[in-house]
Amino acid sequence: MNNKFEYENFEVEDQSLENNNEQQQLKNEFFSYNYCLKYIPIKTAAYILLLLSIIELILAFIFHHKIGVFIGIFCLAIGYIELYQLKQQQLQIQNINSIQGDKKTFLSGPLVQKKITRLFFISGSIFIVLLLMIRIFCLKDAFSQKHFPDKCDDKPNCVMVSDKNQFRNQQLYPLILDASVQQIQDFTKDYFSKKPGTWIVNVSEYKQQNDENIKNNKNKNDNLSNQYTYIFAKFVTSFWGFINDIGILINCENDQVYIQAISQSVIGYDDFGVNYDIINDFFINIEENEFEKMQC
User: Fold this and answer.
1) Is the pLDDT of residue 189 over 90?
2) Which CATH class is domain 158-288?
3) How far is CA 41 from CA 115, 163, 182, in A?
4) Which residue(s) pair with 202 in the sheet?
5) Rounded to whole angstroms, how far apart are CA atoms 120 and 285?
6) What are 81-106's pLDDT values in tens digits?
7) For an engineered disulfide with 68, which of 3, 60, 100, 258 has Cβ 3.0 to 4.6 Å away?
8) Which region among 72-76, 116-120, 158-162 has the lowest average model confidence (pLDDT)?
9) Which residue, among 37, 7, 234, 208, has the nearest Cα to 126 in the 3D structure?
10) DSSP type of residue 107
């Protein structure tokens, strides 16, 4: 009788030891998922990701970057899922004895899901940090928002179509049209307002002959008359969200409208032909449009 009792007692102790070992194993399994890259607590990383996602959403809306908006929403969701899984993990560890009989299902379920979520978490975090770095560097302007620049920087990230200081313009030259400055101005504003990924930042109009701005700019652009418009716009590339600044100078010369243009990348050494395409597309559209013939 005593032997039987000791045997049963031994079985209970052995089972208890086995349960404790399994419990510790499960805790160790979960513990390895409590850190991002083995050093950063995942809870801290998730809150940082949520903050960065909100910042990215705001900047993506400002910069008209659709992919940035999608990435911001995606990372918000991933950050929330990580926090939710962390909370569920803590509850499961507290009640771990209740799932000992189904340990295999337990490990192949939540942990596999966490591995997949963690993969998206790390990928999204890296991508959103890269996007935010691009946003920060693109906050500056490539050239003035109020005056047409004299020339391009000596780098293949700029195209200038002007009566002087032409740069990487290939077959493009300033346009001369029989129309009014107002007509061309309205067309240009409408064109860049409707073009995907492009928006108007500033429109400077100078019409008075004694305008101090005109006097200042005549020293830089001899072809300017006493009536001209300078339009400054921005274009964002579809995937990475790089910014290109666009300047359109519209002035009246010899009763005709004279149009010059510049497009330059805010950051980067090479534009891979983007700036040329921006100006070329604008010139093609403006030439195809029928304007009422009149003196400017």
Assistant:
1) yes
2) alpha beta
3) 16, 60, 60
4) 232
5) 42
6) 888 887 877 776 666 555 544 544 44
7) 60
8) 116-120
9) 37
10) I
